[in-house]
TrEMBL record:
Residue stretches making up the Isochorismatase-like domain: 86-272
Entry protein name: Cysteine hydrolase
Keyword Ribosomal protein carried by entry: no
An example Gene Ontology molecular-function term: hydrolase activity
Annotated keywords: Hydrolase
Gene3D superfamilies for the chain: Isochorismatase-like
Organism: Pararhodobacter oceanensis
Signal peptide extent: none
Pfam families associated with the record: Isochorismatase
Amino acid sequence: MPRGRATGLTCFTTSHGGFGGGHRAIRGAVEGAADRRVTFAPRRGGFGLARENDMQRYQLEPEFEPRHAWTRGEFHLLEAADPATTAHLVIDMQNGFLREGALLETPPARAVVPQINAISQAVRGAGGMVAFTRFAYDPNERAWDAFYRNFLNPDRSARQREAFGPEAHDLQLWDGLDVAAEDLVVDKTRFSAFIMGTCDLHEILQERGIRTLIISGTMTNCCCDSTARDAMQYGYDVVFAADATGTVSEIEQQSTLLNMALLFAEVATAEDIVAAFQG
């Protein structure tokens, strides 16, 4: 795919519901950055509850634009991606995060299912790979006991282990996802899918010659973030799908996208990703 040049570094939110609020996408490059301004649509309840039809529009704060321009320059990873060596990683889109009333329910993740499916279809149709991770609890693996024993309160710990244990309903992928027979489904017992000994993803990607990863899914600031950071440091080119990721609050989504854009990934919209693989 030929390299392209986009102008303007713009972020926007998709609809966001549940006990957080807000998505953004960062798109384009940095020409004309000095003319950009931060704008917000009216918001309800600060960082509290937001309804699913709430829409907030956001642009990268001017104070970060020069640093982004100096660090990254123009975007190019997406335009240069080879479908044959690209994988779309759909992170933890499971019943335990999307089901109403689930222990870790993340309502914004339900809202981004159409964007995730569109990316999967585009990448798959161009000859790329699609892989789904599942956050799992393995009772036979004791190496992460400190998290369940010390970080979580006892009630939350017990409920989370049960929710994501072997064969649990909440462990399963959400029914609304477009999952093809040839797609990969891999379990992980850490936030990142690249912790050796806890997930086989890296070895599989290497065997298939994958070089570019497109990250979507939930939670933006936890498993998506952790996976993207580690992937970049393992040498993958990482594209972070801003409006195909979801988490529970505005500030968590915004902070993650900023960190991704400045340090770890090219941040793009689902529309731009689909266009790149259909062009």
